[in-house]
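User: Before I run my own analysis I want an independent prediction to cross-check against. Here's the chain; please return only the structure tokens and, at the end, one sentence I can use as a sanity check.
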Amino acid sequence: MTVENIYRLISRELDGGAHPGDLLEQIEELEMDQKVELMQQLSDQHASLVFQEMEDFEQAEIIRNLDRDRAKTILTDMASDDAADLIGKLSAEETQEMLQLIDAEEPADFGNLLKYPEESAGGIMTTEFISLPADIPAEEAIERLREIAPEAETIYYVYVVDQEGHLIGVLSLRDLIASSDGTILKTIMRSNVISVNASLDQEEVARVVSKYDLLAVPVVDDQHHLLGIITVDDVIDVMEQEATEDIYRLAGAGKVVDMELTEAPVSKVVRLRLPWLLISMVGGFISGSVIGGYESTLEAIVILAVFIPVIMDMGGNVGTQSSTIFVRGLATGEIDSADVWPYFFREIRIGITLGVISGLIISVAAYYWQGNPYLGLVVGISMLATISVAALIGTLVPLICSKINIDPAITAGPFVTTIKDVTGLMIYFFIATAFIDYLR
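Assistant: Structure tokens:
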């Protein structure tokens, strides 16, 4: 479809009440210069609605190329946190230019948001919230609420502050409406407010919102001044982003900055994935050297080679399970610093139990297949030891990395697999060599 056809389609659908997110599929067919042209042709209202549904890297490229009046309109229509995130992705010169476009009272808000790291509570908060003094009656609070509600991100929570702007309480919209006239806010507010510091990582913010089932959480500074709020829709975005990053890292695929991994150029994806594959290749060479070191054992007992894939695959599955569960537990907060070591020893017990069961099954199968009880014993003990060690490695490697402030998700794939393969082969051939006289 041409830009003109898509323009007519979007205008008609939005006028008919369609959600702008449902129209992105048609827009994705356009090249970047065509998307810029479309944003120029749409009305101010339609352009703002569609723009806010786009990916942030697309927004940054489009805003660079829009004429200044349209860029100003879109930025001022966006929620302050979304606009600040977008401006933060631009160069220093572009950021200054965009800030100058915005009305006189706005740059201070954007400047305050931009000073926080992008993935911190301060970086994802919005300054469009409702706060009221503690000493006003309910009817006055409702009157003020009517005046400022259209500009607020959410009105479900009303935050109560003192004269210096310290957060001292919170009440829901229902609490406020249900109060009789003359009721002072400080008598109906809840003073034990769940809040987060502006420097807190966004992943921790998501845990707080999830733990307490909040629709929004207030953000405060070290002196407990109310700075902004983070709404649940932003938290959902954070959870999706963090989960996606963890999955990519677990697979050794990494993350492409300012672009979806599925749409990134082949060269960028190759640069991200090749180093981890090379690590696996090195592990393969080491594993090969281990097999070569026991060449005489293999030549004497050829049947041993048949069980290598089974033992390696079982160890690999257990190692992957252990590392994935442990890394995910750390990421979601299910495993905190106090639970790390109890969980570690619990995972070892699980590995030993799985190893005993699997070892018994494969030893019986090997015995009935070859009629040699010692072969069953060797294979069974090897399976038990390999699975137990795999569970140990799958938990220990991410644990060590988390202790030295390295993202454990990065290590859970290639490093765990490589170490597990080498140790598994060494265990298998060491036990086989010890029993070689009984296997002939």
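Sanity check: The longest helix spans residues 340-370.
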